[in-house]
Amino acid sequence: MKKIGLIGGLAFRAGIFYYDQIQRRYAAQQRPLDLVLAHADVSSVLACVAAGDKPGLGRYLGGIANQLFDAGAELVAVTAIAPHLAIEEIERVARGPIVNVLDAVPAGLKRAGYDRVAVFGNRAVMETGVFGTIPGDRHVALKPSMLNDVHATYNDIALHGKRGTQPELEFLEASAHELIDREGAQAIVLAGTDLSSFYAEKPPSFHYLDLAQLHIDRLIEVARGL
Q: In terms of Cα–Cα distance, which of 185, 223, 211 is closest to 2?
């Protein structure tokens, strides 16, 4: 098994969620886990994402990836979806392989059998259909008012490490059911690791596809040499 490097801090619970999920799977398979974690500054990353500063984000996270490679990591993953805005720039700076969550999206949708989905996460992720990985004819776009509210709710969850809190839960559930019942979405793509963490104890009541779990699946496959 190859040594895994994780870029955490995006926000606080994101790296913890990846570490916890990976450790659980290794333990279930009775495999020793070799992993190193580095902390990135969430405010710096979100500022780059909001500004569309892909070169700056690539230099910053690519530099952190190289710290992990220097620490012996043989592959690295960014434990958040939004920073994949600059995945090509990160890969150019990094001196080793970066496991890209965007590569897992089309196959994940196909396996789940979803033809039309809506996206919950950071504004940039929602507006672009997870950076173009969900074709326009399959992407149920959120109306501006809902998009603003989901973005604000997601940021609040991420920055304050919330899990299963009632006001946020009620809002997300109501928004999801509106998109599924009235707008033609078959499921909601959870395109933010802090949403995965938010629902860790009790899954959503609606149909969903969890991109963090898809990413972790692929990360472990790469670590196994598959």
A: 223
